[in-house]
Amino acid sequence: MTSLAEARSATRRFGAFTAVNAVDLAVEAGEVVGLLGANGAGKTTLIRLLLGLVRPSAGRILLFDAPPSRSTRARVGYVPQSLGLYDDLTVEENWRFAAAAFHQADLALPDHVSSWQETLVGTLPLGVQRQVAFAVALAHQPELLVLDEPTSGVGPLASARLWEQIRADAERGAGVLVTTHNMEEAEQCDRLVIMVDGAVAAKGTAEDIISGRTVTEVRTEQWQRAFPLLERRGFAVQLHGASLRISTEPRPVAALLTAEDVSAQITVVPASLEEAFVAIVTSGTAPIRDAVAHPRAR
């Protein structure tokens, strides 16, 4: 199957700095691919490469099986972190401008944003601005959606509505590439690609990413005392209810708590996606972990 967007050993250097390093990535029709990574991992630069906004220093970029161009970009709906809207234009004016740019001048403003049609975009709440940005990006029924942190700064309800739209577009056959820092959102993706220092460190389904990874769980009535003890020793501790979860083996945890006279039940449990993600990004760039036998898994 031909990919809608594809990076083949794509590299982008800015002087001596390598922002994207030999990345392979593909997005197919009808799937949602989540692009994850810490700030500065190279996600936005990779997106700009895929859209042809910057050129690769090495490797190859294909958009609809051809080098990115004005004609291939016309088949893409793009929502950047900055939203790509004109703050000093109304919602209606932003819509008309985008519709005309894609030769869809007769399209009516969607009902869910029409109540703000006379309002300047810059005066709207961020959640409403994101709804408008989605509407504008979808005006021409794109075959590929590229969304850079689409729910950043919005509340849970607005975020859920945006993800309903993302899934609906994938179900109609569009491919979606989305970046997010929210692991609950990441779990809604069909496949994940995790970048560390410009390179792909892991990829696959959420289950593939988690597979085989474990954390140490500590259950103790003295958790309020145990938490700072572990944290001061440099352990990355997370509180889940009244239990503590630490991304390390149980032996050093048990030794510390025993030495500090903290009675605890210590077990090894499967990691969550967030814990697996943290383990990957904090371990530094490593050989790619790829548990996927097929390019697409649901």
Secondary-structure map with pairings?
Blueprint (H helix, E strand, L loop, with lengths): L4 E10 L2 E11 L4 E6 L5 H8 L7 E6 L6 H4 L2 E4 L11 H11 L9 H4 L11 H12 L6 E5 L7 H16 L3 E5 L3 H4 L4 E6 L2 E6 L1 H5 L3 E6 L3 H10 L4 E4 L2 E4 L3 H10 L5 E6 L2 H10 L6 E2 L8
Parallel strand pairs: 3-7, 3-8, 5-6, 6-7, 9-14
Antiparallel strand pairs: 1-2, 1-4, 8-9, 10-12, 10-13, 11-12
Helix pairs in contact: 3-5
Structure overview:
This protein has helices at 43-50, 70-73, 91-101, 111-114, 126-137, 156-171, 183-186, 206-210, 223-232, 250-259, 273-282, and strands at residues 5-14, 17-27, 32-37, 58-63, 76-79, 144-148, 175-179, 191-196, 199-204, 214-219, 237-240, 243-246, 265-270, 289-290. A hairpin with a 2-residue loop joins strand 8 and strand 9. The protein is 32% helix and 27% strand. Helix 3 (91-101) runs parallel beside helix 5. By secondary structure, it is an alpha/beta fold. Among the domains are: 5-75 and 142-209 and 280-290, Rossmann fold, CATH 3.40.50.300; 214-270, UreE, C-terminal domain (Alpha-Beta Plaits), CATH 3.30.70. The strands form three sheets. It has a seven-stranded mixed sheet, sandwiched between helices. The two termini are 16 Å apart. It contains eleven helices and 14 strands.
